[in-house]
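Report of the visiting student (M.T.), summer placement. My assignment was to run the structure pipeline on a short list of targets and document each run. The first record concerns Stage 0 sporulation protein A homolog.
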Amino acid sequence: MNNNKVLFVDDEVNILNSIRRVTIGEEFETIIATNGERALEIFSENEISVIVTDMRMPKMNGLELLEKVKEISPNTIRMVLSGYAQIPQVIATVNKVGVFKYITKPWNNEEEFLPAIAEALHYYNLQRENDLFKSQLEERNKLYKKMLEYNNAIVKNSQSDVDSIKIITKKYVTLKNNCFKSLQFEHKNNELSTYINDVIDKLYFQYLETIPSIKESFNLSVFDEKFKVLEEKGITLIFENDSIKKINYLGNKRIIVLVLDNMLNVITSNCDSGDIILNFSNSKTLNINFLIRNKTSLENMSNNIEFKLVLNILDDMCKTFGGKLSFNPEKFQISIDTNLQIQN
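After the run finished, the structure tokens were exported:
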């Protein structure tokens, strides 16, 4: 037996008893009600596949019942039991509530009654399968659309990555050549030349590790462990407000970490940690500011060739995602505009 339920409604108990007997062993569950009110209660408790109702009943007649059934359970197949004298009323009901079939009293169980019920159930199940198929098709279409959007985003990102790699590679080659020529010609310092080239190589290969670029949602709380280490070293951390750590940003977190880490490394190698203030503020996007409190350290750092190279390369990296890295010695400040999108 499957889960189809057929509700028979008639105020004549002997007819309902006859229906119960004839439907024993059929592949559906038989439910009976002697009036429209009880039938509606049954609908509130069950999923009814087919309703078969008499037309003439006290209080609520068959037409009134089927009108309510159409409202509360539009997928239920509606059928009518009627005598020949009720044909005009049946026709009116067919036109008003959409009756699938009507069975005239008296009926032949094997030739009329059971085949009519079977046909109604077949139609109901077919309708339900079609609805399920449509739902699955809609879900597949949604999934396909998401996949298409994802693939388009990958293609778009891939092209953007290719363009960015070209820019950074050109910068990499140019800096290495210029650095080599300058150091060899002016200083003849092979050890320094090797060190500077290593710095350029390290930054370049770190950048390549951020490819393919992936936009992800994150907030500053993911850096809590890093912040703790910085504070232990004596670096002062200032956040614009208590809620800034909870703001969710969308962007390439890996390249933001790369820029932040390398700026910290080059600044701490030239300045005492106690002279460094790291400030996080938010105005449309996330801004990271390094403030150097010691003027002498700042001046020495600004003349340091490693600092200049790192600043130059990281600025180009920031430009690949629409950001900017700037150095303002008059304000004792290095700023990173991350251009990260704020997620609502």
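The mean pLDDT is 85. The two ends are 52 Å apart (CA to CA). I thank the supervising group for their guidance throughout the placement.
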